[in-house]
Automatic annotation (TrEMBL):
<dbReference type="InterPro" id="IPR005762">
    <property type="entry name" value="MurD"/>
</dbReference>
<dbReference type="GO" id="GO:0008764">
    <property type="term" value="F:UDP-N-acetylmuramoylalanine-D-glutamate ligase activity"/>
</dbReference>
<keyword id="KW-0131">Cell cycle</keyword>
<dbReference type="Pfam" id="PF02875">
    <property type="entry name" value="Mur_ligase_C"/>
</dbReference>
<dbReference type="InterPro" id="IPR018109">
    <property type="entry name" value="Folylpolyglutamate_synth_CS"/>
</dbReference>
<dbReference type="Pfam" id="PF21799">
    <property type="entry name" value="MurD-like_N"/>
</dbReference>
<keyword id="KW-0573">Peptidoglycan synthesis</keyword>
<keyword id="KW-0547">Nucleotide-binding</keyword>
<feature type="domain" description="Mur ligase central">
    <location>
        <begin position="117"/>
        <end position="291"/>
    </location>
</feature>
<dbReference type="GO" id="GO:0051301">
    <property type="term" value="P:cell division"/>
</dbReference>
<dbReference type="InterPro" id="IPR004101">
    <property type="entry name" value="Mur_ligase_C"/>
</dbReference>
<dbReference type="InterPro" id="IPR036565">
    <property type="entry name" value="Mur-like_cat_sf"/>
</dbReference>
<keyword id="KW-0132">Cell division</keyword>
<keyword id="KW-0436">Ligase</keyword>
<comment type="function">
    <text>Cell wall formation. Catalyzes the addition of glutamate to the nucleotide precursor UDP-N-acetylmuramoyl-L-alanine (UMA).</text>
</comment>
<dbReference type="GO" id="GO:0071555">
    <property type="term" value="P:cell wall organization"/>
</dbReference>
<dbReference type="Pfam" id="PF08245">
    <property type="entry name" value="Mur_ligase_M"/>
</dbReference>
Length: 449
């Protein structure tokens, strides 16, 4: 890592712990900053905060008191999950204090080449594919960011000869100043997280910020099938590498007559790709572009695409039981992701759905339910889901309390040849801390059958 002096003897407030807050606090402490950590969870219940106390870091727990700002901080490092409407964050911004997220710290200390991947859907699959492709090419590579491993932790050990593939959320990208990946990827842009962002414009601006600091030496891989997105990145100085599943883009990635091409060079026949779903073809094109630009050879890329079946919680095949296939798509926290999952299957499907109620309608799912023979709904949106299913003409509509109960109900309904698909179309926070926990419960219950 680069041993920068930027934060030496500076008073810095880290707001919000979890993995990213702990990592940022320890890094800043190592860089010589005077760090104060603030977290809403009481100290007696807060193991992360207790561990930081043992390191000599000041900790304020139990709430987010605005009065903390009177202590003369020069920088705020915010956990991505804390909204900008938080009174402490609002107060800091009104005072003109810079508010960043830990991916900015990761960039500032990183010696390695960085690939930054964002978008509404497909980030995790694309990030994982790029990592596997570079690894298959026998190049040193790390995976980090929103995918689960904190970027500023990885950046401390990644060397100049390494590559960091970083998944980036809009929440993280709102907190960057200098962050600049050598290769940036925007998989797609749709409406999402509008309960966090003040507007769709703010959300899109956050996503496209991944390229705001790029130069002519850098690359931006972008979905050419979205005219709005192409227009919104027109400001970039980076070299644009477009990808398309619908047309030939000779300067980028495309599919023609069952063959995937990179700038006219044949990479792989689509029949050799094992990852299901039309939406995943977009992710594959974006990943191939990033891998090729990173120096991965075609054989390495082909070997990954011929074996990669998906990431955990994203249209993940779990098990076949009594000739019924169970898929875990717990990461589908919006209707767009659930549409993509439903599109991937042509057999009779039992859809397990529901979760946090953000006030939105689910009627846009109706055209995608043609193969759904039964809907089992849970969580805050259960009745909304069932009402939508009734509009769609689904005869079998069942309300249960939890994901756990939905597996038992689905197993009783399923016939040989059916698909059971957990694709909630909602966030998990009404009943579970993360979509991963929700998906793990599903997997456990399926494996108990």
């Amino acid at each position: 890592m680069k041993h920068i002096t930027t934060y030496q003897n500076k008073k810095i407030l880290v707001v919000g712990l979890a993995k990213s807050g702990v990592a940022a606090s320890l890094l800043l402490h190592r860089l010589g900053a005077f760090v104060t950590v603030n977290d809403w969870k009481p100290l007696s219940e807060n193991k992360e905060a207790q561990s930081l106390l043992d390191e000599g870091i000041k900790v304020v727990c139990g709430s987010h008191p605005v009065e903390l700002l009177e202590e003369g901080f020069e920088l705020i490092v915010k956990n991505p999950g804390i909204p900008y409407t938080n009174e402490l964050i609002k107060g800091a911004r009104e005072m003109g204090l810079p508010v960043i997220t830990e991916v900015e710290l990761a960039y500032l200390i990183s010696e390695s080449t960085m690939i930054g991947i964002t978008g509404t859907n497909g980030k995790t699959t694309t990030t994982t594919l790029v990592h596997h492709m570079i690894e298959a090419a026998k190049q040193p590579v790390y995976m980090a960011g929103n995918i689960g491993t904190v970027a500023c932790e990885v950046a401390q050990k990644a060397k100049a000869s390494d590559t960091m593939v970083v998944e980036l959320s809009s929440f993280q990208l709102m907190g960057i100043n200098e962050f600049k990946p050598s290769i940036a990827v925007i998989t797609n842009i749709y409406d999402a997280h509008l309960d966090y962002h003040s507007s769709r414009d703010e959300y899109v601006k956050a996503k496209t910020a991944v390229t705001k600091n790029q130069t002519e030496k850098d690359f931006l891989i972008v979905n050419a099938d979205q005219p709005e997105l192409m227009d919104r990145v027109s400001f970039t100085k980076a070299q644009i590498i477009p990808f398309s599943t619908k047309k030939i883009v000779s300067d980028g990635l495309y599919v023609s007559e069952g063959v995937l091409y990179f700038k006219g060079e044949e990479i792989i026949h689509t029949e050799e790709i094992v990852l299901p779903g039309a939406h995943n073809l977009e992710n594959i094109l974006a990943a191939v572009a990033a891998a090729k630009l990173s120096g991965a050879d075609n054989q390495a890329i082909r070997s990954v695409l011929a074996t990669f079946t998906g990431v955990r919680h994203r249209t993940q095949f779990v098990r076949e039981w009594n000739d019924v296939k169970f898929y875990n798509d717990s990461k589908a926290t919006n209707t767009l992701a659930t549409k993509s999952a439903l599109d991937a299957f042509q057999k009779p499907t039992i859809l397990l759905c529901g979760g946090l109620d953000r006030g939105n309608s689910f009627d846009d799912l109706i055209p995608y339910l043609k193969n759904v023979k039964s809907m089992i709904a849970f969580g805050q949106t259960a009745q909304k889901m069932l009402d939508m299913g009734e509009k769609a003409g689904i005869k079998s509509l069942i309300k249960v309390h939890s994901v756990k109960e939905s597996v038992g109900a689905a197993s009783e309904l399923a016939s040989p040849g059916d698909i059971v698909l957990l694709s909630p179309a909602c966030a998990s926070w009404d009943q579970h801390p993360t979509f991963e926990v929700r998906g793990d419960i599903f997997i456990d219950e399926v494996n108990k059958l």
